[in-house]
Amino acid sequence: MSDSGSKRSGVKRRGFVKGAAATAGMFGLPWQAWAQGVPNEFDGSKFQLKAAEPNAKAGGVLKYAITSRPPHFDFHQSGTINSLGSQGCMFDNLVRRDPRDSGKTIIPDLAHSWEIAKDGKTYTFHLREGVQFHDGADFTSEDVKATFDRIRKPPAGVMIPRSTLFTTVEEITAPDKKTVVFKLSEPRPASFMMAAFASGWNGIVRKKTLDDNQGNLRRVVDIPGTGPFKSKRRVENEIWVMEKNDKYWNKGLPYLDGIEFYHALPFSPELGSAILSNRVDYARIVDPVTARKAAATPGMSTTSFYQSVIQGTWMNNKKKPLDDPRVRRAFNLSLDKPVLVDVVKDVAPMMMGGFIYPFSEFATPLDQLTKRVGYQTDQTAAIKEAKALMAAAGYAGGVKTPLDFMVREVASFKLWAQAIQAMLQQAIGVETKLRTVVESVWFDDIKAGNYDLAIGAIVSTLLDPSDYFNAWYKKDGPQNYGFWNNEAFNALLPQIDREVDAKKRLEVIRKAEDIMEQDPPVLPVSWEKINDVWYNYVKGHNPKEYFGIYDVVRFDTFWLDK
Q1: Three-state DSSP class for 198?
Q2: Domain-by-domain residue ranges, the chain?
Q3: What is the DSSP string of 177-245?
Q4: Whole-number Å distance between alpha carbons of 366 and 487
Q5: What span, in angstroms and rounded, lies between the C-alpha atoms of 531 and 544?
Q6: DSSP character for 128?
Q7: d(Cα 226, Cα 88) in Å, to the nearest integer?
Q8: Could you tell me if residue 2 is left (phi over 0), alpha (psi between -120 and 50 degrees) or otherwise beta?
Q9: What is the rounded distance in angstroms from the CA atom of residue 422 to the CA atom of residue 335?
Q10: Which pLDDT score is estimated for 21?
Q11: Measured between alpha carbons, how far is residue 486 from residues 166, 264, 455, 515, 521 in Å?
């Protein structure tokens, strides 16, 4: 992959979105930093993706173990790897992240070329010729427009977590079959917008498919895509078999004849056993013990990387006593966060943090965070304040009617829920009743408000707070599962979204963080890392420096060296 077109001429620059400056820019640096290393015009009409290895072989079926029990089939509406982990290979994006460098670089996909206006308010994408959906229909700009119109402004009854990424997109036009234009009401850092377009969640679907289903694809098992693989057979909770798309537009890809996705719960013994016994070739979200065994086994490899997920316990702000911010802070102070990380150390790799990704440039440094009440190893001050807050709120004697504590059916969540139950009872006399449910029930009940407390994981698309602050914490945000509404916080969001001076922006983010500490929108339990394990004959992938597991899900460059 070359970068020979990096010469500057006025405002036009050519080249890939790549390199150290570009990598940082894709994670939310302001416009000035992005402009130094990233093109606002790119012609990739001759670019063709291949595996990094020069001797890639065609053929074979990859056996891949991953949790794959989707709550429904509309991956745009989803926020779990249970959906995209297996469905992702059926779809293409407008632009995408490069699987060969752990997704650091943004490269062409269904759009081979693009231009960004000098004022940052117009993005024009030029689309490939000769692309077909799995059902034989031709791919056009109308499909891109329909896809992103639904994402940015979901129809009634449809909730799409990534809609907040495109709030400034006021119009999408398709002037011809191979051109699509996004017009913004005001500029955003181009790093933010290009990363949003490249998200693995934003796969392109047919306009006709959306029209035929009134904009809701939850019950459409086989959604036509343009991707390298198409659905062949699916057995609920067992296997989803994909076969090669022989008419894929990127000639030579995919290398595999097919993929068999085997369902196994994250961090579970069954998942670990499947990979260690070689019943599968690759396993994602394995437990630390299995990862250590794989690292010591000849012919196997493992890696771990940060994940774009918070493990949190939501508090239903519409129900007493959780409608009181004093109670919410008391609950947060009652959780011994270092202990919660330790509780699951042999099940799932985790790290402590607050309301901002702890491994990001926006986070309060850990050495400072651990001095804050509620994050200290010694819980004395935290418990004292928690009891005083409960008394001030009228709950000096605790809460004796058990709160409904809904728990996702995952080993780590069940362990945490038991620990949190004990911490709340011992610290402030709050009683809870655990209710363990499968993924689909968890998401349905939490969106409907059928719970008091609910522990699970939710996903962001980007490291940039403009993404997840709006999605998780803003009033009526698509993943604001606690129905939290803090007017002072909401007033800061436009400043965070618009500010391009890095220092000034961080100051506003700190103000937002202070608000959340005093009035928690969620109880941050921990932040996730992921273990992958595979046999060395699985080639064509590079997960060692991934951020998250949602952007590089195509499998088109995978091949088997056996």
Answers
A1: helix
A2: 8-222+536-560, 307-529
A3: TTEEEEEESS---HHHHHHHHH-TT-----HHHHHHTTT--TT-SS----SSEEEEEEETTTEEEEEE-
A4: 28
A5: 10
A6: P
A7: 11
A8: beta
A9: 10
A10: 32
A11: 22, 39, 21, 8, 9
Tens-digit pLDDT profile for residues 115-167: 999 998 999 999 999 999 999 999 999 999 999 999 999 999 999 989 989 99
Vertex 475, ends 551 and 310: CA angle to 5°? 40
pLDDT at 28: 30
435 is written with which tokens? 């209710």
Give 163's DSSP letter. Answer: G
Pairing of strands 453-459, 169-176: unpaired
Question: Which residues, in sequence order, are CB contacts of 191 under 8 Å at separation 6+?
Answer: 25, 26, 27, 28, 29, 30, 31, 33, 34, 38
Structure tokens at 144: 């891109």
Q: Point out the residues of the chain with pLDDT beneath 70.
A: 1-39
CB 77 within 8 A of CB 147: no
Give the C-alpha separation, 466 to 505, whole Å: 11
Omega of the bond prior to 266 within 30 degrees of 0, cis? no
E strand or H helix that includes residue 488 = helix 487-498
Q: In 39-187, where do the E strands start and end?
A: 41-43, 61-66, 95-97, 106-108, 111-116, 122-127, 169-176, 179-184
Task: At 276, list the tokens.
Answer: 């260690």
Between CA 348 and CA 531 the distance in angstroms is 8
Within 213-292, strands assigned E span: 229-235, 239-244, 258-263, 282-284
Task: State whether the Cα torsion 402-407-409-414 is positive or negative.
Answer: negative
Question: 187 preceded by cis ω (within 30°)?
Answer: no
Of 3.90.76.10, 3.40.50.10380, 3.90.180.10, 3.40.50.300, the CATH number of 8-222+536-560 is: 3.90.76.10
Residue 524 and residue 312 in contact, taking contact as beta carbons nearer than 8 Å: yes
Q: Given the structure tokens 């391009």, which residue do they identify?
A: 500
Residue owning tokens 């009228």: 394
Taking CA atoms, 181 is separated from 94, 125, 126, 139, 178, in Å, by 12, 6, 9, 16, 10
At 187, the amino acid letter reads P
Q: Which residues, at least 6 apart from 43, have a Cβ–Cβ distance to it below 8 Å?
A: 5, 14, 112, 113
Write down the pLDDT at residue 39: 61
**What six digits make up the tokens of 479?**
């993943």
State residue 139 phi and psi, 5-degree precision: -85, 130
Which amino acid, one-letter code, is at 403? Answer: L
Q: Which residue has the tokens 């060692």?
A: 544
CA 517 to CA 557: how far, in whole Å? 44
Pick from 481, 318, 353: which is nearest to 406 by CA? 481
Q: Which residue is it, tokens 């919410």?
A: 328
- Tell me which DSSP letter residue 137 carries: P
- Burial of 535-558, coded b for 16+ CB within 10 Å and e otherwise, reads beebbbbbbeebbbbbbbbbbbbb
Nearest partner of 80 among 477, 476, 409, judged by Cα? 409
Residues 421, 405 contacting (CB under 8 angstroms): yes
Residue 61: closest CA among 232, 224, 227, 225: 232
Tokens of 119: 């004022």
Q: Domain 307-529 is in which class?
A: alpha beta
What integer pLDDT is reported at residue 241 of this predicted model?
98
